[in-house]
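Today's session is about reading a structure prediction critically. Students often jump straight to the picture, but the first step is always the sequence itself: look for stretches that repeat, for charged clusters, for runs of hydrophobic residues. Only then move on to the predicted structure, which in these notes is written as discrete structure tokens rather than atom positions. Here is the chain we will use throughout the hour.
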Amino acid sequence: MVAVEDDAEARTAIDALKARGILVNAVDRPADCDFTLPAIVDRSPILIAISTGGVSAGLAAAIRQRLEAMLPADVGRLAEGLGAARAALRARFPDGGDRRRAIGAAIAAGGPLDPMVPHADEAVAQWLAGARQVAGRVERIRLRSDDPDDLTLREARWLGQADRIHHTPHVPAVILDRARADAVRIMGPVPADPLPGLTIDLA
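Below is the predicted structure for this chain, in token form.
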């Protein structure tokens, strides 16, 4: 780590270290860095790393501080609770799709396990005791443009959670790419009786 304000002294130290084959992190000199250190939000076992590639450590720190304030201190215990409940989740929801949908509904904004709000240690067990298969539903998205950034936050969330997407031929690939990688893409109308999970009617 080279943290020297004087340019000539910093240059000498950097060159000497690199000549010896030592990886260098030079503070405020991203072009001379062989590696950078991200700002870390630690909610073990959840870790969030914020990096600007050495361009602005202050910006990374500011983002870290905002995220620190947003994330509850106990969100790591929520993760541990879900991990400890894997066997019980498989027993309650043997089908992988049903299990993913149940967990997705639980951890969604406003759900019983919303990670952005504090929870008691027994929250996962209490949720699992009453968890039911998520009923099938259809959400409709009508595009205002071909730009995926014009999707509302809710629409983007639906695409990220969708099990299948029924779409018209003119829907651009950049919009479809916003959906889950394993979501089924179907060019055609939504059937009268949609399958379980979340179906998107996209046009």
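Discussion point for the tutorial: Helices lie at 7-19, 57-70, 75-84, 86-92, 96-107, 123-130, 153-161, 173-176.
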